[in-house]
Specification:
single chain, two-stranded parallel ribbon, globular, 5 helices, alpha/beta
Length: 143
């Protein structure tokens, strides 16, 4: 397993930007950028399709999920319009209900907290992070 992670410091985002972009959309952009880089450089897979699975945040057809889907489409077609001008291709988005009990979502839940804690408290002992650290290919912290 290889981990590509993005940590959005919502506290700093709100302090630094008047109208910050959604932290979920930023995380999606950063993870797609780095995952594409990983697939191109390390795996040498420039033609396959990689599935991105996001946990649904609302009920069926929730506004937040639709907004994330729209952002995914923007990133896939024009790079998301933030700093990137080129599309990020080769991904397919699936928004899965938490009740689906998917192993990938369970793993993401287990590794998200140690990564977040390492970001907020870098000097604090974090044995869970120490276990997953060798599997992290890239970790983006923003801002």
């Amino acid at each position: 397993m290889t981990i590509v992670a993005a940590v959005i410091r919502k506290d700093l985002l709100a302090q630094r930007y008047i109208r910050p972009k959604s932290p979920y959309e930023l995380a999606l952009l950063f993870c797609m950028e780095r995952a594409r880089e990983y697939l191109d450089e390390v795996v040498n897979d420039t033609v396959g399709t990689t599935h991105i699975i996001c946990e649904a945040r609302g009920g069926s057809g929730a506004k937040e999920d639709k907004e994330l889907e729209e952002e995914f489409k923007k990133i896939a077609t024009d790079g998301g319009g933030l700093l990137r001008a080129s599309p990020i291709k080769g991904f397919d988005l699936l928004i899965a209900d938490k009740k689906s009990n998917m192993p990938g979502l369970q793993i993401a839940d287990l590794i998200a907290r140690p990564i977040g804690l390492r970001t907020i408290y870098p000097d604090q002992q974090n044995r869970a992070y120490d276990v997953i650290a060798p599997k992290i290919w890239d970790r983006k912290v923003f801002p």
